[in-house]
Design a protein that fits this description.
Elements (H helix, E strand, L loop, with lengths): L1 H52 L6 E2 L5 E22 L4 E9 L6 E8 L2 E8 L6 E8 L3 E23 L2 E2 L4 E23 L8 H4 L4 E2 L3 E16 L6 H6 L3 E19 L5 E24 L1 E2 L12 E2 L4 E2 L6 E2 L10 E11 L3 E13 L2 E16 L2 E17 L1
Parallel strand pairs: 14-17
Antiparallel strand pairs: 1-10, 2-3, 2-4, 2-21, 3-7, 4-5, 5-6, 6-7, 7-8, 7-9, 9-11, 11-12, 12-13, 13-18, 13-19, 15-16, 19-20, 20-21
């Protein structure tokens, strides 16, 4: 009996001690949670105070509610124009060849969530074969940052060819829509940062992500820095004809840094409404073009020569007559051969590009709507090859402040 009483007392004391320890753990957990929340509120207060201190409230209003949730509908388009010039000095002839790649509009719907000027977006494409598109942005009173990535492929190209002889048009220009036997892959990365000189009175964010509200019309000069890189890849051997036309080029990689000075203006015709226009010409201060090539046993010639090429020898990489390339027009006994032609890198600078933006936003109570558009043009050139890339988007949005 005594043993049972002792065991019972021990179990009771252990149970009481466990309850006391649980109580202590619960109190500690609540204290740590309250401490974390207090620190978060402290950080939030610091950010809110700084945001309001950096602007003139007569021109720019910083809303008390810092969070924004925005529904967006966006259409993005990218055009790539690939131009190649071919000279034939023996006959004083010249040909201009142009390939234009225009994938479908990248229509998408998405949600953008942001605190003050920082935000990220998630979107879902509505079009097939439009590629993937990602974006991140951050803005403040004196700065802005944007990141865009798009990767897509297209199997359709517009092919144009124009021939000249003695400097004059020779024949009728050739223009057709060609279906690539293998799709062309294009990827572009766009990173843009800018500094606003008149940040107390002018805000880009008022028209583009509505983190603040422009109350009075104002403008500012802007200093911009852009990093752009892209790759243009149609190296699948099924596209050999286009590679032969472009002297074996199968891939192009571009890295380009641009520096520019522009001007933006916010027009406020009535309370809550702002119309923004910004133009910034940029000059490339770093421009690297890396070209990958194939070597082929065929080439483009100004005319079909009268010669017996015989059979192709894959060991010596020559035809029976000793020549390494046969005119592509001579299709008899067609025997295509190709091998790695290596790569080459070229550097240049002082290429002029353009950044244009237009934004309209209207705010009422804790809601806002907006329309934005942006246009970028990037150009890179090497020898007789020139590529123009046009990247633009239009976007509609509806948001609420929380």
């Amino acid at each position: 009996m005594v043993g049972r009483i002792i065991i019972g007392c021990l179990l009771f004391s252990l149970n009481v001690a466990g309850q006391e320890q649980n109580t202590v753990d619960s109190v500690c957990h609540q204290d740590s949670t309250h401490t974390l929340m207090a620190r978060l509120r402290q950080v939030q207060n610091i950010l809110d105070t700084r945001a309001k201190a950096k602007v003139d409230p007569a021109y720019i209003e910083v809303p008390d509610k810092p969070w924004r949730v925005i529904l967006r509908y966006k259409e993005n388009v990218v055009d790539v124009d690939y131009n190649q010039s071919l000279d034939f000095p023996e006959t004083n002839e010249h040909s201009d060849v142009r390939l234009c790649f225009e994938p479908p509009l990248a229509a998408s719907v998405g949600v953008w969530v942001g605190y003050r000027g920082l935000g990220f977006s998630i979107s879902q494409s509505l079009a097939r074969n439009a590629g993937r598109y990602y974006s991140i942005s951050s803005t403040g009173a004196k700065y802005g940052f944007n990141f865009r990535l798009r990767r897509f492929n297209t199997g359709e190209a517009r092919f144009q060819a124009t021939d000249y002889k003695d400097g004059k048009l020779n024949g009728v220009p050739y223009d057709t829509v060609a279906n690539m036997l293998s799709p062309v892959w294009i990827r572009s990365v766009y990173v843009n940062g800018y500094y606003v000189f008149n940040g107390r009175h002018y805000s880009q964010a008022a028209a583009y992500n509505q983190s603040v509200i422009q109350r009075r019309s104002a403008g500012s000069f802007l200093l911009g820095l852009t990093w752009y890189q892209s790759s243009f890849d149609y190296s699948n051997i099924s596209n050999f004809l286009y590679m032969i036309i472009s002297d074996g080029i199968s891939r192009i990689k571009v890295h380009q840094a641009n520096l520019g000075v522009g001007y933006g203006y916010n027009w406020v015709p009535l309370r809550g409404l702002v119309v923004n226009a910004m133009a910034m010409p940029t000059l490339s201060v770093y421009n690297r073009v890396k070209v990958y090539r194939y070597n082929f046993n065929y080439s483009i010639a100004d005319k079909e020569p009268i010669d017996d090429y015989g059979e192709w020898n894959r060991q010596t990489k020559t035809w029976a007559n000793g020549k390494s390339r046969k005119p592509i027009l001579m299709y008899d006994n067609f025997d295509l051969d190709y091998w790695d032609g290596g790569n080459e890198t070229a550097y240049s600078a002082f290429q002029l590009n353009l950044d244009l933006r237009l934004g309209i936003a209207y705010n009422w109570k804790n809601y806002f709507v907006g329309i934005q558009a942006q246009y970028n043009n990037f150009i890179y050139k090497k020898d007789m090859t020139k590529v123009n890339l046009y990247d633009a988007y239009a976007r509609m949005s509806f948001g609420v402040r929380l």
